[in-house]
Amino acid sequence: MTGRKRVALIGAGIGGLTAARALALRGFEVRVFEQSDELKEVGAGIQVAPNSAKVLRALGLEPQLKAAGYQPRSVVVRDWDDGRELRRTPMDHAQAKYGAGYYLMHRADLLRMLAQPVPGVTIELGARVEALSSTEKQASVTLSGGRKIEFDLVVGCDGIHSLARKTLHGAQSPRFTGNMCWRALTPAGVFPRGLVAPDMTIWMGPLGHIVVYYIRGGQFVNMVASRETKTWVEESWSVESSAQEMSAAFPNVGGDMRMLIDRAQNCFKWGLFDRDPLPWWSRGRITLLGDAAHPMLPFLAQGAAMAIEDAFVLAREAGASPDDLAAALQRYETIRRPRATDVQLAARAQAGIFHLTSPAARLKRWLKLDRFTRSDPKLLNRDWLYEHDVTAEQPAC
Ligand SMILES: Cc1cc2nc3c(=O)[nH]c(=O)nc-3n(C[C@H](O)[C@H](O)[C@H](O)COP(=O)(O)OP(=O)(O)OC[C@H]3O[C@@H](n4cnc5c(N)ncnc54)[C@H](O)[C@@H]3O)c2cc1C
Questions:
Q1: For residue range 252-301, what is the model confidence (pLDDT) as tens digits?
Q2: Which of 98, 213, 214, 332 does the annotation list as catalytic?
Q3: d(CA 137, CA 133)
Q4: Domains in the chain and their CATH numbers?
Q5: Confidence check: pLDDT of 152 > 80
Q6: CA–centroid distance for 279 within its chain
Q7: Which residue has the least CA distance to atom 6 on ligand 1?
Q8: Are strands 6-10 and 153-156 parallel, antiparallel or unpaired?
Q9: Active-site residue 214, yes or no?
């Protein structure tokens, strides 16, 4: 490498912080610009699936992942009317089957883990990027206040409202997906012992589904409840709600799930937005990563996983040809865009099976769930997601 190449990352979310670590480990000098005054994540859980756990292991974070992550016994699908079990996938063998464990975590714990200091990474908080531009050889960011800084590469890790994406593709609003969501984080002691199984459970009903799992060693129960709606709702994660409001939004839920909703605490609500897949991600020395490139519905729990995979591949390809970063960006995009697009579209398709309305279709789902998943493995079978291992691939040059 002719001198250490300098990379700017816009955004210190899960994508930006993973990319910072991955790029620094490949010898790049990295500056992360984050508009918030502190590194923060919302009080909610996140699933770290085996495909992303493999990347975190390759980045030296497996001990922390094991310490902070809750490993569920199984992934279980239930009908929310009566609690009937529709499908059970044991996860205690995830390590053997997929090559890495399956972890349920508090988002703040994941972010803290990713933000551990690494030589070569500087994180600037309260640093909002107002503009970016690129030539064939360099890119620059302009911070609020007017400071302009040149880099060899600029990566937009700036989420669904990405300025980098807007700079490359022009302004387009995210698409309201017709779904709204509640999240709740409840101390486990609030529920009768045994009510919440040590599984990752998806309760499916007409026009909605609810995901329930433990985090922080079983101290908290994380709940995310999605429901289709025609009314436009707030996109922010931070609109406060309540168990009463959530309960009213899911009037037909029965059995154990009813009690879980009625006693839920720390409830927030928001609207779910995504965007259509992009035809290209990079121009000059600017590229996109994570939600900035491919924001998706959370129905496969793979948005952050895709950002983490993106980060590893970008760093690997840039590290393989640091003196030809334009070629590295082309390889990054050729490798990542098809996979991210597949996952983005599959996440949309999930609503079709999670939210079936007619009793006949729901009965068919129950009777033929295995056949369903065999005929279209992307519907409920997650092997194609979890088996993927970007850390086993060689640089494409
Ligand atoms: C309900 C729900 C559940 C989910 N569950 C899962 C799950 O279980 N597993 C999973 O893998 N994924 C899940 N996801 C998806 C996941 O949360 C996102 O895909 C992931 O957080 C995206 O990370 P990111 O770093 O790309 O973007 P973000 O987390 O949005 O981070 C972007 C960062 O950029 C900063 N920023 C923005 N603009 C600027 C600017 N101009 N200058 C400086 N900084 C800027 C922001 O402040 C922010 O910190 C879920 C999503 C939802 C909505």
A1: 898 889 999 999 999 999 899 999 999 999 999 999 999 999 999 999 99
A2: 213
A3: 11
A4: 6-173+275-392 (3.50.50.60)
A5: yes
A6: 21
A7: 301
A8: parallel
A9: no
Look up residue 354 and give its two tokens: 């999670």
| Amino acid at site 328 | A
Residue 93 Cα to ligand 1 midpoint, Å, equals 29
Distance (Å, rounded) from C-alpha 152 to C-alpha 134? 9
> How many angstroms does the Cα of residue 12 sit away from the middle of ligand 1?
9
Q: What is the pLDDT of residues 221-246, one digit of tens each?
A: 999 999 998 776 666 667 889 999 99
Separation of CA 237 and ligand 1 centre (Å)? 11
Q: 3-state SS of 295-348?
A: CCCHHHCCHHHHHHHHHHHHHHHHHHCCCCHHHHHHHHHHHHHHHHHHHHHHHH
| Secondary structure class of 393 (helix, strand, coil) | coil
